[in-house]
Amino acid sequence: MSNHASREYNFDGLVGPSHNYAGLSFGNVASFNNVKSTSNPREAALQGLEKMRTLALRGFGQAILPPQARPNLRLLRQIGFGGSDADVIAKAYKAAPEVLACAYSASPMWTANAATVSPGADTADGRTHFTVANLNNKLHRAQEHVQTERTLRAIFRDQAHFAVHAALPQTPAFGDEGAANHIRLCGGHGARGVEVFVYGREEFSRAAPAPVRFPARQTLEASKAVARLHGLEERRTVYLQQDPAVIDAGVFHNDVISVGNADVLFYHEHAFIDERCALDALRGAMRAVDTELRTVRVPAAAVPVRDAVSSYLFNSQLLSKPDGRMALVVPQECRENAAVAHYLDDLMASGGPIDELICFDLRQSMRNGGGPACLRLRVALSDAQAAAMHQGVIMNETLYVRLVAWVNRHYRDRLAPSDLADPQLAIEVNTALAELSTLLGLPDLYEF
Ligand code: SUG
């Protein structure tokens, strides 16, 4: 099943109509800095769609993952808010506005946190495996897994090709943030690869170092569970610890400090707890797939960690082009940061594997700490697998035009924290999503 005619699809999260800034993610500097500012959900969705369209037109595999129904009334009822839907919203706004903001969060847009994905070339049974992320470090994200599982099962329904695993036990010992802490290295997307799990802490080792200021969201125990579920081969699986000091500097996911694609690892010198050991482990594992690792190392002298965090240089998409070179998809903040802009000019002139920059305005998402890489889930599929998945989510010009019209019909262009109290917003969101499920050819997508 794992043939070599394989293509990587990026499943971007379509930003939901309730996109807002609620400051819910302690440890995520942007989310914290923009708390309670007014968002523009329409602009956010259009910025995301523009990225998807541009990359699809360039010939990269591109698809979408739909937003989730909001507010999550089940969550609000579970914690004691009762009555009609409008009553529940009014009571929650009065007594627990932060929880209402959680129930309204559009955070499923960051699909790098939807699941960890192992392509068929890596797994014991040749199927593509998905483990839905439990995201249990934050309330607003911990509610996502139910719909995420439903969505993945709807798109990757064919069990001859795909295995979708439910989220790990919902407890801090198994904190799992999905693909944001996972890197796949290989000779080509269809070839056997090395899967790298980057974790922030160990639950069952008191001796292991951990950050002191901000939470480490991913545990080693969770990473190992995902590798087991996917049937990965031990010699092609590597576990690396993120440097706790960079988590404390705002690197809440590994994809804020390193990114890999094919045989290239683009990383900051402070990404891992012991750089030399990390590289040795990666090079050793790469021998099992007969591929030499190529590294693009960014020293702190060129880009200090704080600039990496504010510009999201590493939250970039590294995409293989047909000519064998790679393009780096970066947010425009990278152009606005002097150190990063200078570094990127040098990188383009260096003659290395990355020879093109593609820059997008993703400001609405960036203000919540979500760059180009957060917005997408990578799924490498063989031709047969690509034909077996639901086709209605694949981005093309027709879908783009329909989605832009849908966004313009349903989305508000400003959302302030107090707007979450408006019962009309809940009705608008659900009307929009009901129409979307028809538009995507997934009539049973939501459980309204
Ligand atoms: O989990 N922000 C997200 C950003 C996720 C970025 N993903 C990756 N790095 N892959 C988070 O911290 C902020 C929501 C708010 O504050 O309203 C938020 O959830």
Layout of helices and strands:
Layout: E1 6-13, H1 29-33, H2 41-57, E2 61-65, H3 73-78, H4 85-95, H5 97-104, E3 115-118, E4 128-132, H6 139-142, H7 145-155, E5 162-165, E6 182-186, E7 193-199, H8 220-230, E8 237-241, H9 244-247, E9 258-261, E10 264-268, H10 275-287, E11 294-298, H11 305-311, E12 317-320, E13 326-331, H12 333-336, H13 338-349, E14 354-360, H14 363-366, E15 376-382, H15 383-388, H16 397-410, H17 423-439
Parallel strand pairs: 1-2, 4-5, 7-8, 10-11, 13-14
Antiparallel strand pairs: 1-15, 3-4, 6-7, 9-10, 12-13
The structure holds N~2~-(3-carboxypropanoyl)-L-arginine.
N~2~-(3-carboxypropanoyl)-L-arginine (SUG) binds at residues 21-25, 28, 31, 105, 107, 110, 112-113, 141, 180, 252-253, 255-256, 368-370, 374.
Please characterize this protein's 3D structure.
The chain is of the alpha/beta class and 448 residues long. It has one domain: L-arginine/glycine Amidinotransferase, Chain A, CATH 3.75.10. 34% of the residues lie in helices and 18% in strands. It contains 17 helices and 15 strands. The strands form 5 sheets. It has a 3-stranded mixed sheet. The model has no long low-confidence stretch (mean pLDDT 97). Bound molecules: N~2~-(3-carboxypropanoyl)-L-arginine (SUG). N~2~-(3-carboxypropanoyl)-L-arginine is lined by residues 21-25, 28, 31, 105, 107, 110, 112-113, 141, 180, 252-253, 255-256, 368-370, 374. N~2~-(3-carboxypropanoyl)-L-arginine binds next to loops.
